[in-house]
Amino acid sequence: MKKIVCLLCFFYAINISAVDDLDLLTKAKNLIEEEKFKEALVFLKEAEIKMPKNKLLNIYIDMGICYRRLNNYDNAIYYYKQALKLSPKMPDIYYNIGLVYYYKNLYKEAIDYFNKAIKLSPHYTEAYGAMAMAYRDYGFVDMAIKIIKKALNINPDYAGGYNILGNCFEDKKMHSRAIEMYKRAIILRPDYVSAFYNLGVVYDEIGNYSDAIDAYKQALSLQKDDPDIYYNLGITLMKSGNYYEAQDVFKKTIRLDDGNIKAYDNLIICLRNSKLEGEARKWEKIKFDKFGK
Fold it and tell me: Cβ atoms within 10 A of the Cβ of 10, count?
């Protein structure tokens, strides 16, 4: 494995030598747009060495983006903070540092940086939204509601705000309010996958399986490779007694995430309820061979 890494590095070193210094950032930007973050970092690190100081701000920000998307949160924070030294009044940098702390489950630190972003840019709705999510995950749902309502007062068309508010209402078991918020989010953003997903969760919670199934299928029409959506859809189909369709859904879940042992268990239950004992035994063996139980 180490040899492969070295060969990749060598390959990109050759590419770097083939482009002028002025093209390094363009090459990195293109790779970031293609979500090739490891490859982009090779060019950005070279640019960090070669470029003059007045070019470093964007390099550090892009390095922070790459490391964050690669889940290397400590390096992401380091480079965002390097950018902050060069531009201490840029709210986006505070916002991005806050996001990284949020992903590290360090909610107090995240809230602090979101606050700093808002102080510099009082109409920064995404910073309000992220801060609300941090308060919610920190256990302060009422504070989260208060903050996200501020964001929606600033921008009533902020779809993400309604989605977050829906999550808060669902935490408080205010199902009808949650459904209302998710629907508002979807009206504003018809391709909002997580709002459809969340809507499905609430409908399932209150026993409205038909609408839950429809919401999950809407989410899957927008994002066809999400095993969590397939899994939830399968569970709801089981609850509605549709074991035949649930079988296919759990098989798709397993193809996308073969480590989901519950998907195997539920698939076997569905097969047995469909009187397909032979196939159920086959999947029991597949499950045993993989998990040893």
Answer: 10
